[in-house]
Amino acid sequence: MFIIFSLACAISSNINMLLAFRFLNGMGVAAISLNSSVVGDMFSQEERVGVLALINIPALTGLAVAPIISGYISQALSWRWVFWLSAIVGGICEAGFVFIFREPYKVRILKKAAQR
Hints:
Layout: H1 2-10, H2 15-29, H3 35-42, H4 45-76, H5 79-100, H6 106-115
Domain Major facilitator superfamily (MFS) profile: 1-116
Keywords: Membrane, Transmembrane, Transmembrane helix
Transmembrane segments: 23-43, 50-69, 81-101
């Protein structure tokens, strides 16, 4: 959702479209609340503390750094490039997640093993 609505924000033609797509873009980011659950499924109890710290660093530092970076990007290029770059970086991260993360759901893992 984040990538799709970032692209929609970049190509919006009026303020009403931008506001609606930006709202939906924020709803796509709400999945960050699932980070603890994903880490809990994928890592042992001893490993969770370090992994949770690492996975939450971008979310916490982004709140401070993103407005500064976005301000420079919008002055140098245009406000649309803020959304284009968000979609590009989000797409790269999503591709990384697809190829790096393993399936944490035990039922699905057992079904795949039984099918093999």
